Amino acid sequence: MKVKNLFKITAIALFIALPLSCVEPEEPTELPPETQKGANTFGCLVNGELFVAVPHFRWGTAKPYLYAEYDNGGLEIGAANTNESFRFFLSPEENVFKRMRIIYSNSNDIAYQARNIGYIFLTKFDIESRIVSGVFEYEVIDDKDTIAIVTEGRFDIKLVIE
To answer: What is the value of pTM for the model shown?
Structure first.
């Protein structure tokens, strides 16, 4: 009898607690601060509209909402929220990241590629502490020649070394 009561109490508690654990995080209202401590932040303005990477679940993706991975072939940084995503691919030449590829996708599934206008500047690249931080601004263009202007970009991410 006591086991049945314990089971019922546990089932009721889970029934009440599970919906509370599915609360959506609040939408950010401002850019994250520029830091260099591995704070796992990423933000910018896209055509003047705020983009901040936020935790979320996305079907069909192997990558988390925010990541930075480094191997001898280069540095990949990815950030996403529920509507948009960014991916940076930086390739080293003589220990300096000179070549880059940038992809920005919006909620309409339109992919933009970077033009040769802009920059990504790493303010911290510390393999020992596993931190990569930086600032960026650039223009991207889709296959219909629509331009998106990305400004005031900043990131501070814990680095995964493979």
So the answer is: 0.75
